[in-house]
């Protein structure tokens, strides 16, 4: 994938040939990418959707098992579909524009109550939380 870094962390139990084979199954060949690690062993791994629905369960299970084996406490993998629970880029951009307009056009001192409700209506604070 041209959008992945040259080097990245993967569970040691996934062989290189498996990763190459699996990469064709992901949209944009965006294989799982270990993005963050916590001292307690928790990790954030992100990946694109798997194209072939028939292969999805098998590949997903293989990757999740490899991640579980890599965890010091052998904790189960918790999966979340961020497409369903996070705003898309257009919503974030619209919220940012509303926030900028609010900060430039609305004098805070004169209309504190209106300003705070207008700030809430931008959804900016919700998105950055």
From TrEMBL:
It comes from the Eukaryota. GO terms for biological process: phosphatidylinositol dephosphorylation. InterPro entries: Myotubularin, Myotubularin-like_Pase_dom, Prot-tyrosine_phosphatase-like. PROSITE patterns: PPASE_MYOTUBULARIN. GO terms for cellular component: cytoplasm; membrane. Residues 1-129 form the Myotubularin phosphatase domain. This is MTMRA protein. SUPFAM superfamilies: (Phosphotyrosine protein) phosphatases II (SSF52799). Belongs to the protein-tyrosine phosphatase family. Non-receptor class myotubularin subfamily. It comes from Columbina picui.
């Amino acid at each position: 994938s041209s959008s992945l870094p040259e080097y990245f962390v993967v569970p040691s139990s996934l062989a290189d040939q498996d990763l190459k084979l699996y990469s064709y199954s992901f949209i944009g060949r965006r294989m799982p990418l270990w993005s963050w690690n916590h001292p307690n062993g928790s990790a954030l791994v992100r990946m694109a959707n798997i194209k072939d629905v028939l292969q999805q369960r098998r590949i997903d299970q293989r990757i999740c098992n490899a991640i579980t084996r890599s965890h010091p406490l052998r904790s189960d993998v918790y999966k979340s579909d961020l497409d369903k629970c996070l705003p898309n880029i257009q919503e974030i951009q619209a919220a940012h524009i509303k926030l900028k307009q609010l900060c430039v056009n609305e004098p805070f001192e004169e209309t504190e109550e209106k300003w705070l409700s207008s700030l809430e209506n931008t959804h900016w604070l919700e998105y950055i939380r």
